[in-house]
Amino acid sequence: MYEPLHPVQVEGFRRMTPAQKLQMVADLYHAGIQLKTAGLRMAHPDWPRERLDREARRSLLYAGT
Question: In angstroms, what CA-CA distances link 53 with 8, 44, 64?
């Protein structure tokens, strides 16, 4: 599933400051949480918001293990 980056993407990343790169990662993480929460809400409509948030974060925390 790995696709090499396009040279234009590489150049864009090189021009970014470390703070911009960190912000991009944080934004992607939050988007992932929102997507996972939406999926969990569809599967478990009876769960309270707090449980949906907790389970979404937990699943992403352990996604690579």
Answer: 36, 12, 19
> Model confidence over 50-59: pLDDT tens digits?
999 999 999 9
Asked if residue 57 lies in contact with residue 34, where contact means CB atoms within 8 angstroms, the answer is no
- DSSP states along 22-60: HHHHHHHHHHHHHHHHHHHHHH-TTS-HHHHHHHHHHHH
CB contact burial 48-57 (16+ within 10 A = b; e otherwise)? eeeebbebbe
- pLDDT greater than 80 at residue 41: yes
pTM of the predicted model, to two decimals?
0.76
